[in-house]
Amino acid sequence: MKLSQYFLPVLKETPAEATILSHQYMLRAGMIRQNGAGIYSWLPLGLKVLRKIETIVREEMDRAGAVELLMPTIQQAELWQESGRYDDYGKEMLRITDRHDREMLFGPTNEEMITDIFRSYVRSYKQLPLNLYHIQWKFRDEIRPRFGVMRGREFLMKDAYSFDIDADSARRSYQKMFCAYLNAFDRMGLTAIPMRADTGPIGGDLSHEFIILADTGESAVFCDKALLDLPVPGPDFDFEGDLEAELSKRTQYYAATEEMHVEAEFEGIPAERQVSARGIEVGHIFNFGTKYSAPMKADIMNAEGKSVPVQMGSYGIGVSRLVGGIIEASHDDKGIIWPKSVSPFDVGIVTVKAKDPTIQTAGADAYQTLYNAGFDVLYDDRDASPGVKLSTMELIGLPYVLVIGPKGLEKGVVEVKTRADGSSEEMSMDAAHNLLKANA
Ligand code: 5CA
Q: pLDDT tens digits for 214-237?
């Protein structure tokens, strides 16, 4: 992409309404535009990151055996009346009536709808276990939308729903999601700590929140420092293997959100390992048994020929919240530092003295070479000062930037800047290409 043809409305000033850094950088880098309280348009650069996160989440869900579908954003009130949540959900639910005065709502979550789909098609234990998920916009009329995409009213969530014949099997489904979440967040460069959590309006008695530590986090959290350095299950993890053992690597250590915190247990951790911090909830998993299947009569025939309500769990990831969360975890005073896996572009190219025909040719050649090699390149071909161009690249946080200027060209080199450590090195274009390949 040539910047002269792109849409990247970078702001010079920090907008006053943004109080936390990720929100400031997202606005300044032209990633989002607020359209109403807690409602945002995703501008091209922001959308690219959102899609990358979505792809990682999708790949890890699929790897763990979940199956993607897509449910609508608008739901019928009847289903929520069946489960009993229509009144309970209160003002957080955006209620709508259509032209026939039918009560509808903009979905804040999909337990009822997925239970309805399930009961319409699945009758036998032989069709289980089953895990269905979608990645879809939600609306919650939050009392205090704030921190940009971190607590929005409209936000993108991945929500998965598991169906099992009995409690043991449901536990395994829960454990699979637990492991898949560790892998997904790790691929985004995040250390997410599963913490014992309250279940709130979703319900159930087994629940973990996945928390990344950040000073600007909304939740107070307590955990054992040992949890910060544990390896994740990884891409070769056997989801049909010993899940219990994988979980206990983490659950053996104390980790709880404020609502579930037990001071006496926390005090039992050696003092130097006690972490009392703030965190951002990037995912939340629940096992709630028959809370929805019983009232909604989602029954299954078990091996003994008896009809029983199906056992369920639900598993959320805040896809749009993660964009802000990753920035909170990875930035400096110049801007965002994207982990490669979610960076909107793989590499930037900046030309110095962009009007000079030889520079233009060299810039266009470098762009074409990298583009043809499969890199997603943002080429700043504008006739602007190198300072402006470089600070834009730093703000938007691309992992590498190639600087092409007259002095370098004379020597046959380009300058390769690495965003993560701020280093810069001169090398031939071939060497730069190889370096990018090696670090892709
Ligand atoms: N049905 C369950 C799991 S699928 C559920 O809705 N869980 S949740 O309420 O915990 O939401 C799942 C995730 O969505 C949260 O962990 C959080 O990362 C994200 N999320 C929740 N509310 C918001 C919001 N207002 N803005 C942005 N992200 C949010």
A: 999 998 999 999 999 999 999 999
